From TrEMBL:
<keyword id="KW-0496">Mitochondrion</keyword>
<feature type="repeat" description="Solcar">
    <location>
        <begin position="144"/>
        <end position="232"/>
    </location>
</feature>
<dbReference type="GO" id="GO:0015748">
    <property type="term" value="P:organophosphate ester transport"/>
</dbReference>
<keyword id="KW-0999">Mitochondrion inner membrane</keyword>
<dbReference type="Pfam" id="PF00153">
    <property type="entry name" value="Mito_carr"/>
</dbReference>
<dbReference type="GO" id="GO:0015711">
    <property type="term" value="P:organic anion transport"/>
</dbReference>
<dbReference type="GO" id="GO:0055085">
    <property type="term" value="P:transmembrane transport"/>
</dbReference>
<dbReference type="InterPro" id="IPR002067">
    <property type="entry name" value="MCP"/>
</dbReference>
<dbReference type="InterPro" id="IPR018108">
    <property type="entry name" value="MCP_transmembrane"/>
</dbReference>
<keyword id="KW-0472">Membrane</keyword>
<keyword id="KW-0812">Transmembrane</keyword>
<keyword id="KW-0677">Repeat</keyword>
<protein>
    <recommendedName>
        <fullName>Mitochondrial adenine nucleotide transporter ADNT1</fullName>
    </recommendedName>
</protein>
<keyword id="KW-1133">Transmembrane helix</keyword>
<feature type="repeat" description="Solcar">
    <location>
        <begin position="247"/>
        <end position="348"/>
    </location>
</feature>
<comment type="similarity">
    <text>Belongs to the mitochondrial carrier (TC 2.A.29) family.</text>
</comment>
<dbReference type="GO" id="GO:0005743">
    <property type="term" value="C:mitochondrial inner membrane"/>
</dbReference>
Length: 357
């Protein structure tokens, strides 16, 4: 009888234990289901905030962005745009207010996917590189070095640029066309269809190679310089810029401006070559780059090296930095507006992750 009581008690305890275990497993399963949903929602809200901020900041500096591209590709034998202020006044006089924002819709249309892919890729790449670095060094507390941040930023930039390159390519063409162009692209999708139909799929990726090479120093240096400057300031606190363990908005803007200036200066020649290669095969731009002498036939480039060689030979080394001034002028306000817009949208959406994290 006692034996039966022991068996029954043991069986009952076993059943209770099983029920408790099942309950705990169910709870863990529910938590495991909810956690990714919360994480995904948080990432999406942050990326939406970044996309809106990017669109607002790009729109604010759209006139300078368009002038930069026009300076990059204009015919050296028929100079129309001879500086920042003169160029903006010329666009206003010949095309009106809307001419200052031509191509901006296409530019903004690629901001959200580009930002989404770039920052998600940077997060994944930096996490993976940090894990490998800690495994190699055996130091679980190791942090990313500037070189490793450069690598993570380069990976993110290449992936994001490749994913949205066709939109960037047609944006360049829409930006360059004027009311006098014999042929008009009515919008981004019309331009994509037209280029694909008349020039083939490969035409959508003209200038891709210099873009890949250029994005390594540009995006990579942006991340590396920005985050390294922040870390250095937090550790050294020069001029008392750190308050309660945080950098002020002005200090963050200065870090971002420095990062953007370094990145764009190093990568700018490749951006010029990319734009020029994008115009190959399209003779209806506002200004068509031609060779020297009497020949007015548009230049053809067999590749990136050939484009570099012909540009320097026909126009000199300074041609590789055409449009750098308006591009530099727009860096600081673009970063400032993007930062303020992102913070505002982040608060509205309740996003709890910063783009730079």
């Amino acid at each position: 009888m006692a034996s039966e009581d022991v068996v029954g008690k043991s069986t009952g305890e076993s059943a209770v234990t099983t029920i408790v275990n099942l309950a705990e497993e169910a709870k863990l399963a529910r938590e495991n289901v909810k956690a990714p949903q919360y994480a995904i929602g948080s990432v999406l809200r942050s990326l939406i905030a970044g996309g809106v901020a990017g669109g607002v900041s790009r729109t604010a500096v759209a006139p300078l962005e368009r002038l930069k591209i026009l300076l990059q590709v204009q015919n050296p034998h028929n100079i129309k745009y001879n500086g920042t202020m003169q160029g903006l006044k010329y666009i206003w006089r010949t095309e009106g207010f809307t001419g200052l924002f031509k191509g901006n819709g296409t530019n903004c249309a690629r901001i959200v996917p580009n930002s989404a892919v770039k920052f998600f890729s940077y997060e994944r790449a930096s996490s993976g590189i940090l894990w490998l670095y800690r495994q190699q060094t055996g130091n679980e507390d190791a942090q990313l070095t500037p070189v490793l941040r450069l690598g993570a930023g380069a990976c993110a930039g290449i992936i994001a640029m490749s994913a949205t390159y066709p939109m960037d390519m047609v944006r360049g063409r829409i930006t360059v066309q004027t009311e006098k162009s014999p042929y008009q692209y009515s919008g981004m999708f019309h331009a994509l269809r037209t280029v694909f139909r008349e020039e083939g799929f490969r035409a959508l990726y003209k200038g891709w190679l210099p873009s890949v090479i250029g994005v390594i120093p540009y995006v990579g240096l942006n991340f590396a310089v920005y985050e390294s400057l922040k870390d250095w300031m937090l550790q050294t606190n020069p001029y008392g810029v750190v308050n309660n363990g945080e950098l002020s908005v002005v200090t963050r803007l200065a870090c971002g401006a420095a990062a953007g200036t370094v990145g764009q200066t190093v990568a700018y020649p490749l951006d010029v070559i990319r734009r020029r290669m994008q115009m190959v095969g399209w003779n209806h731009a506002a200004s068509v780059i031609t060779g020297q002498g009497m020949s007015k036939a548009p230049l053809e480039y067999s590749g990136m090296i050939d484009a570099f060689r012909k540009t320097v030979r026909n126009e000199g080394f300074r041609a590789l930095y055409k449009g750098l001034v308006p591009n530099s002028v727009k860096v600081v306000p673009s970063i400032a507006i993007a930062f303020v817009s992102y913070e505002a949208v982040k608060d509205i959406l309740g996003a709890d992750m910063r783009i730079s994290d």
